[in-house]
Amino acid sequence: MTLRHNDAPLFLCFFEELMKLANSTLVSATVLGLLLSLVPCGNSFAALAQDSASHVFHLTGDYEFTHDPSVIKAGGTWYVFATGRAPHGHMAIRCSHDLKDWKLCGQVFTEIPEWIQKESPGTKELWAPDISFFDGVYHLYYAYSLFGKNTSGIALATNKSLDPASPDNKWIDQGVVLRSGAGDDFNAIDPNLVIDAHGRTWLAFGSFWSGIKMRRLDRATGKLSTDDTRLYSLATRARPANAPPPSPDLPPDWEAIEAPFIIHHGGFYYLFVSWDLCCRGTRSTYRTMVGRSKHVTGPYVDSTGVPMMQGGGTQLLAGNHRWLGPGGESLYVGKDQTIIVFHAYDAVTGKPALQISTVAWNNGWPTVGMEDH
């Protein structure tokens, strides 16, 4: 439940008295719930009271080997797009009617686009698809690169339908959107399409190097804006005092921040990112962090006020005894709930798998869950 702006005065009016009742040994939770339902806009307060904990989905079916998931709902079907190869191509698509039982239901491309093969012949997989729907078209931003390099690019594919049975279901390659090269201090991978409160489109992206960046997009074309050509910086890691030397031909581990995803909630933009190291099985140290800002371009700060451009970030997810390295996250904001999808690694086998949780909001900050058994 989102606390709307027109709920705020009532919340300020009743909050103190309700908290007194909640803390009283003479008033049970049941009685408090009845009181909440009787006050004006009691339904809003009841929903707020219930929105204190997230719900973790127990998944079945084809949910394993999902990496960097991106989720969307179309009609009565949920679709998850993921990094890497599919049984018959690239960037596997999984479908579900209840967010619990998943089936492989296709792929974006049967072959890597020819122009990518020519531009980046070492690319064998396509990474980090980001699915969105606006202006009657599905937009899928995705990345191509080589592991540990920033000679990378972000491209766009579009589709009129996600339904495998629809004659309109055909992915059209729209080509490159943004590139980075060895001379740049950023890495053009891990794209996320953002639509701000004014309807403007933006692309957040980045991995290692100087961190998370953003460019304005032309909403009509899905490509870079020619009106605003600024490269915005959103988040980076702070260099530790005694940083170990990097491995040969790789960026240093302390620079590890990637997989940005931005949503708008309650007057703030929330920037979710993944810190530390992915893709290492049981040695993966990924964790998911978050900060917020009044403006889509920042500055973003964590819950203690530390700017994300100074290494700030509030931890949202970390590994447990069952699943390690949770990250590569994306979110879906619906009318009734917000969900987060991410991957984590089996603590025994090291294999990645899809994870899903609802998002709860407490004191203006998100909380989510992860299976622990």
Keywords, separated by commas or semicolons:
373 residues, mainly beta, 6-stranded mixed beta sheet, 23 strands, globular
**CATH architecture assignment of the largest domain:** 5 Propeller
The biggest beta sheet, please?
6 strands, mixed
Please count the beta strands (DSSP E, at least 2 residues each).
Answer: 23
**CATH-level-4 superfamily name of the largest domain:** Glycosyl hydrolase domain, family 43
Low-confidence stretches: 1-51
Distance between the termini: 28 Å
How many domain regions?
2
How much helix, percentage-wise, in residues? 10-25%
Q: By helix and strand content, what is the structural category?
A: mainly beta
Shape: globular
CATH class of the largest domain: Mainly Beta
Structural description of this entry:
The protein folds into two domains: 50 residues; 313 residues, Glycosyl hydrolase domain, family 43 (Tachylectin-2, Chain A, 5 Propeller), CATH 2.115.10. Helix 2 packs antiparallel against helix 3. The protein contains four helices and 23 strands. The chain is 11% helix and 38% strand. Strands 1, 2, 3, 4, 5 and 6 form a six-stranded mixed β-sheet that branches. It has 373 residues and is mainly beta.
Q: Could you give a short description of this structure?
A:
This protein is mainly beta. It is built from four helices and 23 strands.
Give the secondary structure arrangement, pairings included:
Layout: H1 8-23, H2 29-38, H3 42-50, E1 60-61, E2 70-74, E3 77-81, E4 85-86, E5 89-96, E6 101-109, H4 114-119, E7 127-134, E8 137-144, E9 152-159, E10 172-180, E11 192-195, E12 201-205, E13 212-216, E14 232-235, E15 257-265, E16 268-275, E17 287-293, E18 314-317, E19 323-333, E20 338-346, E21 352-358, E22 360-362, E23 365-367
Parallel strand pairs: 1-6
Antiparallel strand pairs: 2-3, 3-5, 4-5, 5-6, 7-8, 8-9, 9-10, 11-12, 12-13, 13-14, 15-16, 16-17, 17-18, 19-20, 20-21, 22-23
